[in-house]
Structures are given as C-alpha cells and as structure tokens.
Design a protein that fits this description.
The protein is α+β, with helices and mostly antiparallel strands and 621 residues long. Helices cover 39% and strands 26% of the residues. The chain has 10 helices and 26 strands. The strands form 8 sheets. The chain has a 5-stranded antiparallel beta sheet with strand order 1-24-3-20-21. The protein has a 4-stranded antiparallel beta sheet with strand order 8-7-6-18, with helices on one face. Strands 9-10-14-13 form a 4-stranded antiparallel beta sheet, with helices on one face. A hairpin with a 5-residue loop joins β6 and β7. 34% of the residues are buried.
Length: 621
C-alpha cells in the first residue's frame, strides 16, 4: 500500500527487543517504587492472595490490640480507685483506734467519740464517691452490678407513724428481712446508784433521789446536774439542772437574827424589862435560842413559818414565847426564878420579858440569845420532763466536804423505756434507757439496731417517745431487693480475631453498701464500745473485700496484658510473613534495572547501525 514503511528484518528484530526491554524496565521501576515484587494478582496470584490474607489477619489483630489497650486502661482506672479506697479504709480504722482510746463516760470522752464518728461517716461518703468516679469510657469495674436492696417506703412510713419516731430506715442491707419494732416501758425515773453516792459524798447530801415519770410531751433522757457554790458561813447556792431547765436554791445565808436588849434595869422595887427581837431572813430549819436565867429555849423554823404570806419573825417569836410561858407555870423550869412574865408583839416579832421585883432588893434577870443556820435543808424540785430531784443538805457534812462542798456533780438518769427490734429469725436487739451509758442505753436522737441482714435506724424524739411506750406501739419495717443485677459494668475483651476466645472482667462492688464493702455508718455516735466493735468488723470485711477485688483485677490485668503483647508480636509475625511473599529485594531489582537499561542502550545502538545500513543503499541512487 502506498505510504507504508517497510522495516527490514533486522530493524524489526531490534525494535521488538527494545520494546520488550522497555516493558521490563517499567516493571522493575514499579517494583522499586512500591518496594513490592507482587503488586497485583497478575504479578503472582498465589503469593498476592496469601499475603493479603496474612495482612488482613494482622490488621484484625491490631484492632484487637487497641481494644485490649483500652481494656487495660479501664482496669488500671479501677485499680487506682481501689487503691484510694483502701487508703481511706485504713484512715477509718485509725479513727476507731482513737475512739477506743477515748472510751469513757465523761463529757470530754463522749464529745471526742462523737467527733470521731462524724469523721468516720465523712470517710465513708468519700469511699462511695471514689467508687463512683473510677469509671473509664462508660465502664466502672468497682461500682458493682447494679443490684441494690432497701426498706420499702410503706414499711418506713408505718414505723414513722409511731409517736416519737422519725426517719426510720435500714442501712447496710445485706439480705431481705422483716424487723418488728416495739416501744414499751412505764417511764418511771431513777438515778444511777453510783452517781448518787458520789454526789452525796461530794456535797454533804443525804437521801438524794431521782424520781417521777417521764413526760409524754416534754420528756428528756438528759442527765441531772447539781452544782454547789458559796462558802462556809455564807449563802450557799444549789443549782439543779435537768436538760435545758435549771433551778437555783439559796440557803444558809446567815441573815437570820435574834437580839436581846435591856429596856429597864432592875432596881429596888423595880422589875427588870428585857426585849428580844427576831428578824432577818428566816429560812426553814433556822434555829433560834433564848437563854433566861440559865434555862435555854430553842425553836426551829418550820416550812409553815416561812411560807408565803406568813410573818416568820412573829411566828418564831410566838413559839419561843409559848415555850417560856409554859416554863413559868406549875413545875416549869423558870418557876421560882427572877422571871415574872413573857409576852410578844403580835406585829413586830418582839418578845418582852419582865422580871420579878421585891421591895428592898434588886432582882436581876439574865437574858442571852443565839441564832444558827439550819443543820439540814430539804430540797425537792420538779421539772417539766417529769423528773423530780430531792435531797437533804446536811450543813455539817457540806462544810466538812472537800472544797467546802462546792463543785459540779452529774447523775445519770435512768428511765423505764425500751425499744426492741426483732428480725424474722427471732434475733432481738434492745436499747434500754435503764441501762448504764456505754451498754446499749436508749437516748434521744438516732438509734441503731444491728443485725446480720442490716442495720435498723430511727430518730427518737425524747419529748414524746413516752406516749408510744404508754400505748405499747409497734410496727414492722421490711427490706427487699429493689433493683436487679446487670452486666453493664462488666468488661468483655476479645482475645482473637475469630471471636472464639475472650475474657470477661466482672465488676465488683466497692461501695460501702451491704452488697459491697458492708461498711456501715457509725452507730449511736460510738457511745458504746460495742458500736466501735461493729465499725471495726465492717472495716475488716471491707479490707478482705478490697484484697479479693485487687487480686481479681490483677489476674485479669496480667492475662489481658500478656495477650496484648502476644497479639502485637503475632501481628508482626503475620506482617513479616506477608512481606516475605511480596517485598522485593532492592539490590537485586536495582541490578536488574541497570542490566535492562544497558540492554536498552545496546539495542538502540544496534537499531541505529541497521538504519545506517539502509541509508548506504540509498546513496547508490
């Protein structure tokens, strides 16, 4: 065909060789640029698909490794929370040790234990908050499985309807139970025998007694305090306190007086006239004495003499006059003496003594007086709580006592009132206001009753609890499961790419609830050693639970960490195996490229020579 160019056989051969060489050069350059000798299935289907399978498995394992890493972080977050909780439990145990050291019924020891109990409750709250804050990416391995138990609202309301009872509840619920609450007692009041004896000795009291019946509206479990002030020979104050109510009684003021005066001196034929004036502040028991012609006449003021509306001076003077008058008649002591008559001023409390007179003789009459404080004083005070405090003050014992009888004494009040709580197994816990302090004594405020299944708590109003006892009130409080367990906090970790091997880290409960550490709040402000013992038992259980949880977390962490390391290393093995199938030897491929390039140059030269041969033929024309 016109226009076609015909190549010689040698030129066509050279051209085909150059094309083949260029194709091989392009392949070598592609290998060198990618680093792979197999870049597609066309390059080697067997190696290509084998390497692809290995790489895909390595990629799956790499993803699993990342998930394992996050799981490890979740466990480590839980472990940090566990370690902190363990530290707080140790601190709480230190508080119980301090509370044991402060055991005692004095006000300072009681106050110290109350403060320590409050600190214990603060640590308990912080443990719960730490457990709640230890989650990682939505998983909290120390927050438990969600199961919880509590008392029913209806049963709480039933107990709260009892007069004097409020905020009834059950804490540290370990298992379901039913608790029967009963209030009983007649409310009669008495004082602790040892305290009464100690108070009598300290202040010169006799017959000290606490009595009465607790009020149903203003009742009180408060101790009775008696304080004595003053000095011998001066006014003495007796301050009796029951709860917020206080009474002050003043005695032995030494202001009572009795004074004799000579009005008319005896003379020949003139009778002596003397007056005796009774005055000052007269108290029951004050003693007044008139001595006439060596004969003494004494009178002790009575309660009636000093009663409101009475003229105590006139009453005392009248009684002294009566005694002297009796001695002037019959065989009386003053018959034949120099005393003729005695009279009293009905309005002024003045006694007039008139002597005998004889013509030619002077008949003098001796008159002397004395007044002393009462040897004893009876005190009886009634308080709104229903408490009656009564005692007799013996002045001689008071003045002989240490510090002249001054000081403060406290008498522990005992009341016949009990709260009994019985669970469904028949176990019974009683708090009794008749008990000594430190031995399950019932008081106002929160009261706790501990069982194996939980702790019943209620607030007691001392003012009105007597009404419930009088009515023998009772009610039941019931506990049950209020939420089911779930696995939302459990951590499942896949350990291979086929999902045929996994490990599940089960969440543990390190809250202070009955389903967790079983670490209850401080009971009864640690008033009793038994209350502290219960706190220690709870802490021991908490330590054991924490130790078990720590071992569980550590075991799972070690397993997952080991699998993570294995997965990483095995993924590297797979990747390396895939590389062996597809990676090119850079040195070998570079040498091949160089050889091909040399071959290409030689082919180009050969083609050029063949072309020159054709040109030589053209020159012939």
């Amino acid at each position: 065909m016109a226009g076609n160019v015909t190549l010689t056989a040698s030129m066509r051969t050279n051209l085909l060789q150059l094309q083949s060489t260029q194709s091989q050069i392009d392949k070598k350059q592609n290998i060198l640029s990618t680093g792979n000798k197999i870049n597609s299935a066309l390059d080697g289907p067997t190696s290509f698909f084998a390497a692809k399978g290995l790489n895909q498995r390595a990629g799956d394992l790499s993803s699993l490794k990342d998930a394992m890493g996050q799981s490890i972080s979740t466990i480590q977050a839980a472990d940090k929370g566990l370690t902190s909780i363990d530290s707080l439990v140790d601190q709480a145990k230190g508080l119980t040790t301090a509370a044991y050291a402060a055991l005692g019924n004095d006000a300072a020891s009681i106050s110290t234990r109350k403060a320590l109990a409050a600190q214990f409750n603060t640590l308990k709250d912080q443990i719960d908050k730490l457990a709640g804050d230890s989650g990682y990416q939505g998983k909290n391995l120390i927050a438990g499985n969600g199961m919880s138990m509590d008392s029913t609202s209806a049963s709480r309301a039933a107990v709260n309807t009892i007069t004097g009872v409020d905020n009834a509840r059950v804490t540290n619920v370990i298992s379901s139970d039913t608790y029967a609450v009963r209030i009983k007692g007649d409310g009669s009041i008495e004082g602790k025998t040892a305290d009464i004896s100690k108070t009598e000795n300290a202040h010169g009291f006799v017959g000290l007694k606490l009595s009465g019946t607790m009020s149903g509206t203003l009742g009180s479990f408060s101790d009775v305090q008696i304080e004595v002030r003053g000095a011998n020979g001066r006014s003495r104050d007796f301050i009796v306190t029951d709860g917020d109510e206080s009474r002050t009684i003043s005695y032995f003021d030494n202001t009572q007086t009795i004074e004799a005066k000579l009005t008319t001196a005896a003379a020949t034929g003139v009778a002596q006239v003397s007056t005796v004036n009774v005055g000052g502040t007269i108290e029951e028991g004050d003693i007044f004495t008139i001595t006439v012609e060596g004969q003494s006449f004494s009178y002790t003021a009575t309660k009636g003499d000093v009663a409101v509306g009475q003229n105590a001076s006139v009453n005392v003077a009248t009684n002294l006059r009566n005694s002297i008058s009796t001695a002037l008649i019959g065989t009386g002591r003053l018959v034949g003496k120099d005393v003729a008559s005695v009279s009293v001023n009905a309005s002024g409390g003045t006694i007039t003594l008139t002597g005998n007179s004889t013509a030619g003789a002077v008949r003098e009459m001796t008159v002397t007086t004395a007044a002393t404080n009462a040897l004893t004083k009876k005190i009886s005070e009634s308080f709104a709580s229903g408490t009656i405090v009564s005692f007799t003050v013996d002045r001689r014992l008071l003045e002989a006592a240490n510090n002249q009888g001054n000081g403060v004494s406290v008498i522990e009040k005992k009341v016949d009132l009990q709260i009994q709580v019985t669970n469904s197994n028949g176990a019974q816990v009683t708090r009794d206001a008749m008990n000594d302090r430190g031995d399950g004594k019932l008081t106002g405020g929160e009261q706790a009753f501990t069982f194996d299944s939980g702790t019943v708590r209620m607030e007691i109003d001392a003012k009105t609890i007597k009404k419930a006892a009088s009515a023998n009130c009772s009610a039941n409080i019931v506990t049950k499961q209020i939420s089911d367990a779930n696995t939302s906090n459990d951590l499942t970790v896949q350990l291979n790419e086929r999902n045929t091997n996994s490990i599940t880290v089960t969440a543990v409960n390190l809250t202070t609830s009955g389903q967790g550490l079983q670490m209850d709040a401080a009971q009864n402000n640690w008033m009793d050693r038994a209350d502290i013992d219960k706190a220690v038992a709870g802490l021991d259980h908490a330590k054991a639970t924490i130790r078990s949880a720590s071992q569980q977390l550590s075991t799972n962490l070690n397993i997952i960490t080991t699998r993570e390391t294995f997965t990483k290393e095995f993924s590297d093995v797979l990747t390396e195996g895939a590389s062996k199938l597809t990676l090119a030897d850079q040195n070998e491929e570079g040498a091949s490229l160089l050889m091909l390039q040399t071959r290409q140059q030689l082919g180009t030269i050969a083609l050029s020579l063949a072309n020159q041969s054709q040109q030589s033929i053209l020159r012939l024309f």
